[in-house]
Amino acid sequence: MSLLTRVLSAAATAVLATSVVAAPAQAIEISPPGANDWSCTPSAEHPYPVILVPGTFESMVKNWSTLSPYLKSQGYCVFALNYGETNGVYATAPVAESAKELAPFVDAVRTATGAKKVNLVGHSQGGMMPRYYMGFLGGAKYVNQLVGIAPSNHGTEGLIVPPPSFVEDPDFAGLGCAACADQQAGSAFMQKLNSIGDAVRGPSYTVISTVYDEVVVPYNSQFLAGPARQVTNIIIQDKCPADVFEHDQTPNDPVVHQIVAHALGNPSGPADPAYQPACL
Q: pTM of the predicted model, to two decimals?
């Protein structure tokens, strides 16, 4: 482990132990509104069920409390999961191990709905981790599109720490955050993830970023390279200059909701870069 990784891991642990609290796993193992109706049958208009993948330190109910019911109201079958638990805190395990938890969940959704493929929508780590599932665990053939909201696709030059909205209190003493180390720019994990290119054959990709991101920095490190028919990168402020949403709250941004729905509504490719949402 490099000196930088040890310092960053220690810093994240210190923050967790002294200044941030999160709900115990048993208290937040609940679905966001509109998600995980295992009897849902995809419609002809929306043939691919949507799986919502939360970010580091997040639970599905917190991360997707607004986007999940929004997509459900649009007629999608919506599913969500928690993953990567370490000492009661989600999405902190090694990212490659978390991807191994996503794989059977995708299979379960496909079996329940009869769909051959799914759409994945993820925030932060949740927008990046599925790329490992698709690129290294054979998941590409089961994914129609990945929509990443402020995803850590090439790591961050900053420090990933929990958001200030965590409100309960498990014991954080000694907690490690392997996912935090994995998401540092230049980490061994990031080098492996991107060694096969940003986009693998098959799925399409839409990336939605904010210039006010203070966690995954620089914000343009979130972008993916690939042909226009497969990859679209969107900056929120290019569409709505007055939008000041930052990293943690991007999944709750009404503008982001519209872009996600637009991307998912394009069955053969990513979001149209010319799409203009209503600036609310």
A: 0.88
